[in-house]
Amino acid sequence: MSAIVDFLGPQGWQAVLLSLKVSFWAVLCSLPFAIAIAHVLARRVFPGKQLLNGLVHLPLILPPVVTGYLLLLAFGRTAPIGAWLEQSFGLVLAFRWTGAVLAAAVMGFPLMVRAIRLSIEAVDPKLEQAASTLGASRWRVFTSITLPLTLPGILAGGVLGFAKAVGEFGATITFVSNIPGQTQTLPSAIYAFLQVPGGEVQAIRLVTLSIVLALGALFLSEVLARRIAKRVGQA
């Protein structure tokens, strides 16, 4: 461990740990909502469905800086939602690591929804209809049939969201700034090192680590997805 800290430096190591922390909580907090929205978009027909679909994918279209600025307008300490959260729950998002979680979750949410939605749409609706005909409630149909069959897609969505959160820069730096040890994530640290003379070596080390983390996450998700799909096929 000490060798890794010496290799990355204290500031780089703090940025890596914070990025992993932010990414974990971003996926954990947004995954249930991603599953719910994906299921609604895949299985429901209602007025405004295309509008909801557009809003979900809006962070992919807007420049990340714009998304970060909108988050600042909505969740800043003097903004309506931000002030309410602070007064009601003592939760401050702007210029805090919790705000980095929100920014990462918002930017990764469309990728998660899309992966999960495609997985749900691949499930044969006749299986769900048969369960409903036998008297199963919607919730039971979802938990016993739809959810198990879409686990590989959920896992893929979670990994995509995690990878996006690790690499998120524009919205994060706009919403929570780039404070070492507090809001400086891995991409922000790379940017900071590139702004100072002689920081290129440290930046390259962090870039290398970023590549390793991304490839490791993709490899792990592929292995887990195959195992889950195999178990579902045997069930």
Textual characterization of the structure:
- The structure is a single chain.
- It is built from eleven helices and no strands.
- α1 (2-43) crosses α10 (186-194), α5 (97-121) packs antiparallel against α8 and α10 runs antiparallel to α11.
- With 235 residues, it is mostly helical.
- It is globular and about 70 Å long.
Highlighted features:
single chain, 235 residues, globular
Mean pLDDT: 88
Summarize the amount of helix as a percent range: over 70%
Poorly predicted runs of 5 or more residues = none
Q: Rough shape?
A: globular
Question: How would you summarize the topology of this molecule?
Answer:
Elements: H1 2-43, H2 49-61, H3 64-75, H4 80-89, H5 97-121, H6 125-133, H7 138-149, H8 151-167, H9 170-176, H10 186-194, H11 200-234
In short:
The protein has 235 residues and is an all-alpha fold.
